Amino acid sequence: MDAIQVLLKGRSPSSSDQPSFIFRQRAKKISQNEEPEEERGEESQAEVTVVRPDSEDDLNPGLSTDVTALVLQKPSDRRKAVFFLILFSLLIFTTAFLLGYVAFRASCHYCGEVDVELVPAEDTGDSGATWGGMMYLGELKDMLRKYLKEEQIERTVRRMSRSTHPPGSTEGNTLASEILQKFRQMPMDHTWTDSHYATLQFPSRTQRNSLWIIDANEEVLEEIPLGSPLDYCAYSGTGTATGRLVYLNYGRQEDFDRLHALDIRLGGAVAVVRVGGGVSFAEKVWHAQRAGIVGVLIYPDPADIPQDPRRMGLHGSAAISEHVHLGSGDPFTPGFPSFNHTQFPPTQSSGLPLILAQPISAYVASQLLSQLTGPECPRGWQGRLPYVRCALGPELSSGSGRRVRMGVYNTMKPVLLNNIFASIEGKIEPDQYIIMGAQRDSWGPGAVKAGVGTAILLELARTFSTMVDNGFYPRRSLLFVSWDAGDFGSVGATEWLEGYLTMLHLKAVAYFSLDMAILGDDNLHAYTSPLLADLIETVIKQVEHPKHSGQTIYAHTESLGGNWKTQIVKPMFLNSGAYSFTAFGGVPAMELRFTKESRPYPFVNTQFDTADRLQEMLQGRLGALGRSLGELVGLMVLRLAHDHILPLDITCYSSTALHFSSQLNKYSSELKVRGISPQWVFSARGDYNRAAESLREAIMNSDIRDERVTRLYNTRIMRVEYYFLSQYVSAVETPFRHVLHGRGDHTLAALTEHLALLRSDPRLFDEARFRRQLALLTWTLQGAANALSGDVWNIDNSF
Asked: Could you list the residue ranges forming a coiled coil in this record (predicted)?
């Protein structure tokens, strides 16, 4: 038993009423030069024994048991008495100090380094062998590192990327069965499947998507081959669209604003846009639809996605597929779970596009853009397509009246989805879940898209189940999930969230997405809820960088200059596997990725995403990188599964609210003229800050051995993210209700953008809309403050 243990020995037949006490403490290594415990045989023990005599005969017959009498004897006996008195006093002091230390350590959650905190290790019940045993958190970390292996990671990636495996396909169902079987081979407490019927979109089997150049009389002048029939944008509008051609850079909102400022007509045009720019395919298409564009062609520019034809054999022939639904989940059951036994009225997501979208290769893009005339591109819009003069359009140089026609013939299909679950049940709070997940499906081979995440998921599941077999008792439950239909917008994960949302906000501690975890071998990025950001700092100081031996990830990041947090911690984005958990479900979530800024992996969502190409780019370090990523996630999961009080930063949103308050102050004169006061926001921010600080102080001053008190605190901590889901907007019409990470008019981002119009373009400022936005944000923040206070009599409402 680690730390300190007091054992009460029973009486022997000859003992008196005074029992014997034995005090034991494991001797800790204090020098790196000491001999390892494994080589010394039995574990080193320091033992001090205090024996109270059963009778006077048990002592040396030459000594009196009365200490006072000893002092009064002749001088030689007096010296002996003093010696024994000092020895006895030191023994009592040492025992009292060590017992007090144990009590202090057990009651103080925020004391010292986490490596010396204790965790229940094993409970053998009536056998009594090691009941109530303890393990240091440091020992658990060593155990995690010991059992976490890299050998299986590459093997799993290669198995996953042998062929395409979209949802509902024979290959996809085979992989699902294999993963379920692997979970069942591990000593898990529970394994099961969760099934949904969702409507997905696939390329037509009878008619290929096409692209033509036509003349003023609608006659086809040239058909431009699009490459593989498997390249498509799921949930695109279908049919044909014809229009003049324009170039729109990345298709960001600021790019559209730039063309409007140049007075280039966009209505009825077909747009060519580049992959990247910090916006997803769905956002590009959404902006285009709002601008009146009828079709969007999306290509990977070599300036953004380097392609080396000598090593990779691409030579501009790759088109990148991605869904274009501005949302997640089944777009035909928005806000509802796609269970087969439910009969929801016909509806569809507001994020489903009406216009056409099609991915094209860089080669096809160069054929189109080389014919464009019109104003030259603004600075920074020039890509690296060969033989292309960067013009904006909208006319084609080869003749007046020439236009582009595109045809998209994708078909909708209902598909049975299967999410695969395995769990290790927590020993103290089994109804609190820490969830790890990865998508299983892929349009292409999917080495990065599906293989890497699944490989790390299976390795973490095997590691934690082995740790439990060797003495680890997780306080909370661990869930391992293989999601279906991730390529279509986290459909499997979102449908599960929608089906169990009413219970998950009370039970889900955190979610870790393993999707696309390895895109390079240099920099680490964490797309995360701020509640989990402190855990990142802890683990990157403990994990060695897989490429830079001898340096932790933290040390390597700091050596690049700048603050580690600004380089590693990033905001979550729409296509992240973690996004819907936070923005829709109100669960703190994180997605970790290794990447390389100078040369990112170019084959995600293409037919070239194979294990061989991934290993070639990583120079054979796939297993090592996968293990490092698994160790990072594993250490964070270990903390969340171990600590009495959940290590989530409940004060993180105070600084966000404070920053927004300062923004409002800058516009105080403009708001005052319109009779708008920001005072209510300031009061709500103050209430939230006081509630968060009060809860933190209460935890620091509490006895965390009291399970009732601990559970009350953890319930309030777990729900912080959920508190920031606006209760005043519909989950059907506005699924991403989080006011800080979500999407919609209710969010802080939308309000801030609207506020800026007071100076940039006051004519566009809508006072009624702004008042509504401000009210929604204020009452969501105030509601979070009230809920965090815990009880109605503790609410510090300054209104």
From this structure: none
